[in-house]
Hints:
alpha/beta, 5-stranded mixed β-sheet, 4-stranded parallel β-sheet, 36% helix, globular, binds 2-acetamido-2-deoxy-beta-D-glucopyranose, hydrolase, iron, Calcineurin-like_PHP, glycoprotein
Amino acid sequence: MDSLRDVKPIKLIFSIFCLVIILSACNSTAELPRFVQPPEPDGSLSFLVVGDWGRRGSYNQSQVALQMGKIGKDLNIDFLISTGDNFYDDGIISPYDSQFQDSFTNIYTATSLQKPWYNVLGNHDYRGNVYAQLSPILRDLDCRWICLRSYVVNAEIVDIFFVDTTPFVDRYFDEPKDHVYDWRGVLPRNKYLNSLLTDVDVALQESMAKWKIVVGHHTIKSAGHHGNTIELEKQLLPILEANEVDLYINGHDHCLEHISSINR
Ligand SMILES: *[C@@H]1O[C@H](CO)[C@@H](O)[C@H](O)[C@H]1NC(C)=O
């Protein structure tokens, strides 16, 4: 009996400890997940960026993939970035959706493209099963696939910050038209966006890398079809500017633009 009584306070302390952890997990934001991408022995890195691509090879996707294979070999690339809209028109329905093979594994077949692919989600991906694209099953099916909502890749001279931009866009919530978006894990929306912005800000502040690159699906500024994304201009851009981000890379508008700022 004595020994049992001795155990109780320890149990109590343990439960208080757990409670404190749970409470702090509720109040504070989490650190963004991180991946380490080793650079070349000379410290350099090269990578390709592609966005808005999953077409089962059509819309010239296969031809683009062929050219990516060639340039990827010439540059001896270390990794690839996808800026989202990975699978048209409506993402994938499960981790076993044949779109994954038809639009990814069986399309980007060149040896030079057998490197890590760091993906974010686009608005078309949110029209499917988001958890399917985030599922570790996809990495079992094709070990190149790395897809989280928001995360950081540390590559010594550069830190790359991947930001989930779709939940910022009011129109997808206010006027979804005939589209159904998979907002699981995103609601309540304001809480999700506020903690994401804080997480990105903190990660940028902590970064010691020479270069800071941010990747998202949506435009901040664009002269293309969709134009600027005002929600990102208002909410994300000030954080990128305050942290002296060198480059923001996006997809969404299907054209090549190089936009620089006269402010800095
Ligand atoms: C593929 O590219 C060719 C040449 O640029 C173009 O004429 C054709 O319309 C493209 N096909 C599709 C389906 O976009």
